[in-house]
Write a structure and sequence with these properties.
393 residues, alpha+beta, Chorismate synthase, AroC fold, 5-stranded antiparallel sheet, 17 strands, 31% helix, 20% strand
Length: 393
């Protein structure tokens, strides 16, 4: 069985981010240009802060690829932080003189990792917590997921995302199966229709004027996943459980739904479960008449689009800070303000896609893994062929 895993390292204002991806088969075409195209999508979004005007994310591949083809060995990547030029002393690895501005932060930001992180790791300078807890780390996840997506591409699995709510403004008038994904990519707020686009922007503008922040809900959908990814035999192998954990790991995410999970609780069973019918052209093939389950039943993919809805809270850092305390003195102060977005729903969408890609790749290699792409393709073809034994013979 091929073991897929990835690691990231680095701080928000440090020299850069390191990424290692292990478990990719040999023989997969992969270029830095492909990875850069995916990473650039994370930097877009209406209501983004000033950091995105500084950074231009790209990943330099340092190992695991030769002449544009993966070798089967670990793939290492480096993402430079351009803003490090303004933080060379404050984020120096080596000790610095006492008279150097170390950009020490002691004022807690409510809703951030500052408070529990300081107590857990005994840090009297909150910067030692917030530098790693920052959403800057998600750039490394998107880079890792870009490698994973190249493998999924080979098997016709595609992943898309859109914002379905910003604050109290809902934008679900277009059903998932009817979304024009190119239009979503063209929208600065990743809305699926012009009306939602305008309403989302207006909500963000109002939040900016009010000197606060705004959250929302985004949808991540995978098309083309085969039946049987994941398993019902152990809790930690269930695909929906793995997806929920992955989505919850995104900064500021506080809720995850598979399919129409929450709405299902308000309906009778007859309106919730997805009826299975044979294909008139081939009774050995089956399909569901609906997809309330979000493409996962019993912890396994069922061949339908895999749908997750992810709730992301408003960003903790605001231009009108909340009251707080100094972690060292207990003095009542205003929370610290660090440059940040007003709304991160649109920018979180590609991160959600990244987590979907990483989980599906892990499950895919768990099922079909081999040392080379050709071996995986043979395993996959044999599995799909085995489904033909069901139904009338």
């Amino acid at each position: 069985m091929t073991v897929f895993r990835y690691l990231t390292a680095g701080e928000s204002h440090g020299p850069g981010l390191t990424v290692i991806v292990e478990g990719m088969p040999a023989g997969l075409a992969l270029t830095e240009k492909y990875i850069e195209a995916e990473m650039s999508r994370r930097q877009k979004g209406y209501g983004s802060g000033g950091r995105m005007k500084i950074e231009k994310d790209r990943a330099d591949i340092r190992s695991g690829v030769r002449h544009g083809i993966t070798l089967g060995s670990p793939i290492a990547m480096w993402i430079e932080n351009r803003d490090f030029a303004n933080w060379t002393d404050a984020m120096s690895v080596a000790p610095v003189a006492d008279d150097i501005d170390k950009k020490v932060q002691t004022r807690v930001v409510p809703g951030h990792a500052d408070f529990p992180g300081a107590l857990k790791y005994v840090q009297h300078d909150l910067r030692n917590v917030l530098e790693r807890a920052s959403a800057r780390e998600t750039a490394a996840r998107v880079a890792a997921a870009s490698v994973a997506r190249r493998l999924l591409d080979e098997f016709g699995i595609s992943i898309h995302s859109r914002a379905v709510a910003t604050g109290s403004e809902d934008g679900r008038s277009v059903a998932t199966e009817d979304v024009d994904w190119e239009a979503v990519e063209a929208s600065e707020v990743r809305a699926s229709d012009a009306d939602a686009d305008a309403r989302f922007k207006a909500a963000i503008d109002k939040s900016k004027d009010d000197r606060t922040t705004i959250g929302g809900v985004f949808e991540v959908v995978a098309f083309g996943a085969p039946v049987g990814l994941g398993s019902y035999v152990h809790w930690d192998r269930k695909l929906d459980a793995r997806l929920a954990q992955a989505m919850m790991s995104i900064n500021a995410v506080k809720g995850v739904e598979i399919g129409t999970g929450f709405a299902n609780t308000r309906k009778p069973g007859r309106e919730v479960h997805d009826v299975i019918v044979p294909n008139p052209a081939d009774p050995r093939k089956f399909s569901q008449t609906s997809n309330h389950a979000g493409g996962i039943e019993g912890g396994m993919s069922n061949g339908q689009p895999i749908v997750t809805n992810v709730a992301i809270k408003p960003i903790a850092t605001m231009t009108r800070p909340l009251p707080s305390v100094d972690i060292n003195t207990g003095e009542v102060v205003e929370a610290a303000y660090n440059r940040s977005d007003i709304c991160q729903v649109a920018r979180a969408c590609p991160v959600g896609e990244a987590m979907m890609a990483l989980v599906l790749t892990d499950a895919f290699l768990e099922k079909f893994g081999g040392d080379s792409l050709d071996e995986i393709k043979r395993n996959y073809a044999g599995y799909v062929e085995s489904h033909q034994q069901f139904g009338p013979r």
